[in-house]
Design goal:
By secondary structure, the protein is of the alpha/beta class. The chain has helices spanning 9-17, 30-47, 63-70, 82-95, 107-113, 133-143, 159-172, 189-199; strands at 53-57, 74-79, 100-104, 118-124, 144-155, 202-212, 217-221, 227-233. This is Ubiquinone biosynthesis O-methyltransferase.
């Protein structure tokens, strides 16, 4: 891999090894399938996806990208995991999702090639897996049109997040494979807000995502102490 690419080879290898299980709703990716209706509804409610040109950065196997295309958007999903992209492409063919395409390219390279081209940019559950999240945020700002929306989701960095997202989710409840997350890479909302300000994005809404292990239910709330989402807009 090009050493200048903003990606961790170990992280890519981790998700590449699981690529064949992306679309199994009972696999390691079950939480993504369960939260996808929540994040999809939130994004669509703010940005109105129908007819929009959308970019999904760090799309993986295409769970969010495919669902946004089904809402009427023209979606491009990008990732650096070739295996995950092949799974996404195969699923699109099998499901007949016509308005979605996938490319192996970094966010930074995409920003150089397609500045100001997208109405909506999404970057969900990805920032905590890269060496330089600020670079991704700046690329998102470059890629979106003036007036366009950029959505992020990631994990807060505090004791509660370590307890719930690492010990709880990976070791106790086994919702995720052990080693999925590296606590040191978690990002406080104040830090992400700072990246957004530097990139020229206005933060318009913050939401938290919570989980009840007894009922298996996820929901959006005002509690950003563990999982949280940002809705930003380019002036």
């Amino acid at each position: 891999m090009n050493p200048n690419v903003n990606a961790d080879p170990a992280e890519l290898a981790k998700f590449s090894d699981l690529a064949h299980r992306w679309w199994d709703p009972d696999s390691e990716f079950r939480p993504l399938h369960q939260i996808n209706p929540l994040r999809l509804g939130w994004i669509d409610g703010l940005a109105g996806l129908a007819g929009k040109n959308v970019l999904d950065i760090g799309c993986g196997g295409g769970i969010l990208a495919d669902s946004m295309a089904r809402k009427g958007a023209r979606v491009t999903g990008i990732d650096l995991s070739v295996k995950a992209l092949k799974v996404a492409q195969l699923h699109a063919l099998e499901a007949g999702t016509s308005d979605v395409s996938y490319q192996e390219i970094s966010a930074e390279a995409m920003a150089l090639e397609h500045p100001g081209e997208f109405d909506v940019v999404t970057c969900m559950e990805m920032l905590e897996h890269v060496p330089d999240p600020g670079s991704i945020v700046r690329s998102c700002s470059t890629l979106v049109k003036p007036g366009g929306w950029v959505f992020f989701s990631t994990l807060n960095r505090n004791a509660k997040a370590f307890l719930f997202a690492v010990l709880g989710a990976e070791y106790v409840l086994q919702l995720l494979p052990r080693g999925t997350h590296e606590y040191a890479k978690f990002i406080r909302p104040s830090e992400l807000a700072g990246h957004c300000r530097v990139a020229g994005l206005d933060l318009l809404q913050t939401r938290g995502m919570e989980y009840n292990p007894l009922t298996g239910r996820y929901w959006l709330s005002d509690d950003t102490s563990v999982n949280y989402l940002f809705a930003t807009r380019k002036p």
